[in-house]
Amino acid sequence: MNIRQAQIKARDLLAKNNINAPELDAKVLLANVIDQDDTALFKSSDAPLTNSQYSKYLRHIKRRARGEPVAYITHQKEFYGYNFYINNNVLIPRPETELLVEEAIKFIKSKVYKVESSLNIIDIGTGSGCIIISIIKAISDIDKRLSVDDVRFSATDISKKAIYVAKINTRKHGVVDKIKFYRSDLFSNKKMLKKYDIIIANLPYVPKSNIKNLPDPNLALDGGGDGTDIIKNFLDQAKTRLNNDGVILLEIGFNQAKDIREYAKKIMPKSKIQVIKDLAGLDRVIKIVFDN
């Protein structure tokens, strides 16, 4: 069986099982099996698959047909232009989360020339590490005057398995010595610094009643009754861990901005709070500039 025939057969099987974008998924999974990009795949469409390649491809397609996400099958996901290792112990990175990276970089650029000491930045609930690693990778690419040596990076997660994945990605991207990891439920680890200039968090914000059939780990999704329990607990702690003129960057659910904004204003009345929309026009990030 050649590449084109295998891809058509896979596409039809996925479509039969009501998988969204069956043709795209069939192509991505095949490219992963034969280790070629889309262009090479198209050019070699008449080339035969070996028996082992076809067997592996069929296993991938059957997993996808059962609803398993492509990223958990290929163990790869692109985020902010970088490729990350992913498994089912971490949340699959979403495009809308790239807003956190963009806002963090803006804040770093606005501050790094104005302070005498290094900035301290922490990623709470790091998961795969995609946010903090993307910030490090992008800093010098965006502005050659910036140096990661001007910033001290830390990351936490409550899950030991998630931190293991994040460390794999630090090796993958050559930033092993740039990030200090802590296993911690929010700020509970006593070894963490007392204060930070930038606190980033993409915490569980899905209402408990909505997570039953979602493929990501429950620990990365379950935000309690209305989805805001962990976020509010985080804000209660973060307000005492942020330096004056520091910033909190927090991803939220599309319908949570009003509640979270009001709560943040209640516990940090002097802070400046901004809601940032994603590319779909949905409320996605809460930015809190702290003034105590």
From TrEMBL:
One of its GO terms (biological process) is methylation. InterPro entries: HemK-like, Methyltranfer_dom, N5-glutamine_MTase, PrmC_N, RF_methyltr_PrmC, SAM-dependent_MTases_sf. NCBIfam families: hemK_fam (TIGR00536), RF_mod_PrmC (TIGR03534). This is Protein-(Glutamine-N5) methyltransferase, release factor-specific. The keyword tRNA processing does not apply. Residues 5-74 form the Release factor glutamine methyltransferase N-terminal domain. The keyword ATP-binding does not apply. Residues 117-250 form the Methyltransferase domain. Pfam families: Methyltransf_31 (PF13847), PrmC_N (PF17827). Keywords: Methyltransferase, S-adenosyl-L-methionine, Transferase. SUPFAM superfamilies: S-adenosyl-L-methionine-dependent methyltransferases. GO terms for molecular function: protein methyltransferase activity. Transmembrane segments: none annotated.
